[in-house]
């Protein structure tokens, strides 16, 4: 049996351990795109280019993501001097998020509050919006991002840029999903919704939260988004 891998809280890493994280990711990102361990190849398993292997909305959601993270971790271990690398985790149930994201001057990113929309109908708006964001200092941009994540985690609701209420409270959802009475409803939003619809109105059966729900939400908190005809969850408007 191999050595047990100890995955540590990101905020509790030593300076040396943080340097190892940066060095390992830098190595993968510099590999040719067609290399089996390249960041491009492994990121592609999750999304684009097709085929897309990521499982959402079904019982494979938790297990697929665990296997995916192991694949990424093993690739990171291939970096010189990183043979004992273990993927750190971000404890999203803690209140402190300061310093987790840093945008040095000149760094290009599509993280919130920047817009990454590049379609023909959004291109000009994105350029104008990102120019507005760039009027802030890098520290102010980081503060906007961290505040958005903090809001999604700790506030029950928040006001979007239109002044309308949007639901949040994702840290509580991470805790509440552990109350699910079976793996199926715990594992994915489709099964949780079916269970909640079936038991709606029965006071003896509380509604359930799937682990997939807050997982999806944190993707969105870091990116900022709106869904046409379903709601605008962005506090920072795309003008």
TrEMBL record:
GO annotation (BP), single: melanin biosynthetic process
Enzyme class: oxidoreductase
Protein name: tyrosinase
Catalytic activity: 2 L-dopa + O2 = 2 L-dopaquinone + 2 H2O; L-tyrosine + O2 = L-dopaquinone + H2O
Keyword Metal-binding carried by entry: yes
Keyword flag Metal-binding: yes
Family: Belongs to the tyrosinase family.
PROSITE patterns in the cross-refs: TYROSINASE_1
Keywords (A to Z) from UniProt: Copper, Melanin biosynthesis, Metal-binding
Enzyme Commission number(s): 1.14.18.1
Species annotation: Diplogelasinospora grovesii
A Pfam family annotated for this UniProt entry: Tyrosinase
């Amino acid at each position: 049996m191999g050595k047990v891998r100890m995955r540590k809280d990101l905020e509790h890493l030593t300076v040396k351990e943080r340097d190892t994280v940066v060095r390992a990711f830098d190595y993968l990102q510099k590999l040719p795109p067609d290399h089996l361990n390249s960041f491009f190849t492994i990121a592609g398993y999750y999304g684009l280019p097709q085929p897309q292997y990521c499982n959402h909305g079904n019982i494979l959601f938790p297990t697929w993501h665990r296997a995916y993270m192991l694949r990424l971790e093993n690739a990171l271990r291939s970096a010189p001097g990183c043979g004992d690398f273990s993927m750190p985790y971000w404890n999203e149930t803690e209140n402190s998020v300061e310093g987790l994201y840093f945008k040095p001057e000149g760094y290009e990113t599509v993280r919130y509050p920047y817009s990454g929309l590049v379609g023909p109908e959004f291109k000009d708006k994105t350029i104008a919006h990102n120019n507005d964001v760039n009027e802030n200092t890098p520290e102010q941009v980081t503060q906007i991002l961290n505040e958005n994540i903090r809001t999604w985690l700790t506030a029950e609701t928040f006001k979007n840029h239109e002044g309308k209420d949007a639901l949040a409270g994702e840290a509580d959802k991470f805790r509440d999903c552990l109350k699910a009475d079976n793996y199926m409803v715990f594992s994915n939003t489709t099964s949780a919704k079916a269970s909640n619809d079936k038991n709606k109105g029965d006071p003896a059966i509380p509604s359930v939260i799937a682990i997939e729900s807050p997982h999806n939400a944190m993707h969105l908190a870091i990116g900022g988004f709106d869904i046409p005809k379903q709601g605008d969850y962005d506090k920072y408007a795309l003008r």
